[in-house]
Amino acid sequence: MTTSNKRYKKVLVIEDNHAILDVITLILQSEAYKVSGLSKGGHMMEHIQAFEPDMMILDIMLPDADGRELLEQLRTNEATAHIPVLMISAKYTDKTIQHGAYKPNGFLAKPFDIDELLDKIEGILAGKTY
């Protein structure tokens, strides 16, 4: 019995716009990622514990939370501090976003280009910061 070294990378996407969440999910699944999506930040920590993502895509503006506050929760929790995060936003840009003390591994303004999204995900998973 042989075991494959190629383990599917798991990406947790927290995005309240269902159309965007569906598009990201389809794109990532077509690239052989395992994807789990949430439309709110409320159960994020329990979901992370169950899904064990290799990285997260986190929208800033959620109906029940600010993505920057969720990022702070991740970074200040020993169990989740290591998870790389790509933040996305329609309201903010690289220049106008204020992250506070905790920085994501990358940022992407919406609407985004599919290739740019995939490049940033692959880069972040390889240890790069944008």
Overview of the molecule:
Strand 1 (10-14), helix 1 and strand 2 form a beta-alpha-beta unit. The longest helix is centred in the N-terminal third of the chain and has 13 residues, at 18-30. The chain has one domain (10-125): 3-Layer(aba) Sandwich (Rossmann fold). It has helices at 18-30, 44-51, 67-75, 114-125, and strands at 10-14, 34-38, 55-59, 85-89, 106-109. The chain has a 5-stranded parallel sheet with strand order 2-1-3-4-5, with helices on both faces. Helix content is 32%, strand content 18%. It is built from 4 helices and 5 strands. It has 130 residues and is of the alpha/beta class. It is globular. It comes from Pedobacter albus. InterPro entries: Bact_response_regulator, CheY-like_superfamily, Sig_transdc_resp-reg_receiver. Keywords: Phosphoprotein. Residues 10-125 form the Response regulatory domain. This is Response regulator.
